[in-house]
Amino acid sequence: MTDRRLHPDPERITQKTPAQIIVPVTDLDRSPTGPRDRQALYGEALTVLDRADGSAYVQLTKDSYCGYVNETAIGPVTTPTHVVTAPATHAYTYADLKSPDVSALSFGSRVAVTQTEGRFAQTALGYIPTQHLAPLPHHFSDPAAVAEMFLGTPYLWGGNSRWGIDCSGLVQAAFLACGIPCPGDSDQQQSSFADPVPDSGHPPRDIRRNDLLFWKGHVALVLDPLTMIHANAHHMAVTREPVQDALTRIAKIDGPLTGHKRLSPSKWP
């Protein structure tokens, strides 16, 4: 059966127009009236497949995810030059930290810098502190360290930003920031991302940093053999948690561990 998330409905394709997100964050919905499947951030590239009644049927470039966004959230293609590398940042009216802030952007947002003025970069949104930006292309080296930047972020089903994120959104953000393509949902990550760790056992014996642990509908990223990080509804936030504590707690609610995977060395940039 064709996965609607990755394969556009051919009956809904009336165009293939490149575009990008022009708001700080927007929902990518399953239908024009919801519910939310995922989110897209400022500067993300996409292809518009259809427009009707204020909604656009689109496919995201980063992971091929298909869904509906509000037409006001998309605009013509520009060329981003920088990416937000701080957990979050503000765009100011002027190159002055005391001037009014006009927008907030999450980690991973992409902007086009037209010039710099002191410690600020001018963009279409306003002036952003240069300390919060890095020129594209930019890759972090450690997904686990990226995930830790989201500690305390509220849990949000389908979320992909610093304002709210879910388990698979956190994993995707961590690996994409390191230049490693990663699907958007936990079932996709378990089925098509990384490789099973052989003879892992239950509980897993050979746990390493940046391994992925899977449960039914949930995924966590390993920080060290004893600790993992995950966006979870139990704490309603991104938290660190002892692996054994999580195994015991989650097994009582959603069942046992269903997978333990590790990215092969050949897939690292």
TrEMBL record:
A GO MF label: hydrolase activity
Keywords per UniProt: Hydrolase, Protease, Thiol protease
Pfam family, one: NLPC_P60
Signal peptide interval: none
Domain of life: Bacteria
Domain NlpC/P60: 137-264
Protein's UniProt keywords contain Protease: yes
Family note: Belongs to the peptidase C40 family.
Protein name per the record: Cell wall-associated hydrolase, NlpC family
